[in-house]
Structures are given as C-alpha cells and as structure tokens.
Specification:
Length: about 140
Amino acid sequence: MLNKFRSMNIHLKITLLTSAVLLLGAAVFAVLWIAFGWMDLFYGWLIGGAISLINYGLIILQSYALKNANATAGLQVIGFYLSRYALYAAGLLLAAVLRENGMNYINIFTVFAGYLPVRIVIYVIGIIDRKDVSHV
C-alpha cells in the first residue's frame, strides 16, 4: 500500500492527504458540535477546507496553463490568481458578515484554519519525499 502511495502523482497525493486531514478535523469539530453545540466551528472548517481544495485545483490548472503556454496563458494565469484570492476573501467575508448580523453559523477562525491543511500537507510531503541532495 505504501509503494502504491509513493508511486502516485504528487497532485493526487496532496489532494488525498489533505482530504484525510480535513475529514479528521471535521470529525473533531462534529464531536464538539454534538457535545457543546458549537456548529459554527464545524461549518467554518468545512467552508475553509472546501475553498482550500478548490484553490489547490486552481493552482494545478494554472501550472498546466503555464506549461502549455498558448496565446491566452497569461490571461488565464491572472484569472486563476485573482480568483484564488477572491475565494479566500469570500470565505472570510461570509463568516464575518454572518457573524456581524447575529447569525453565528460560520466561525471566521476555523475558516482560516481550514485554509491551512493544503499548505501543511505540501510541506510534510516535501520533507518526506525529499531526495538525497548531499552531492550538491
């Protein structure tokens, strides 16, 4: 099983591990929801995690657009870049606006925390899969 995982495409590895981390976090926040009624933590984590995975997909699409480098690649890259930051801002803004209007359905801090698993998984895979570079 470990050999099969090591032979996977790096994008698939990151997506699978990030999904596992997000599901584990969702399970923890679901327990907190059941035990204490903190549903805003659960929904914030889900919104942040979904936005994080969508943004990772946009990064992959952006890299393919740069690799193919057709006539519209520059505009595509700018569009992907701006849409990624717009999604990040939309998640935080949604949580803030709902909170401001007295509807505590989404916690802004767990939305931000939901943005982090992709980054953490990328760092961990980079450390684990690091090749021996002692000859450099």
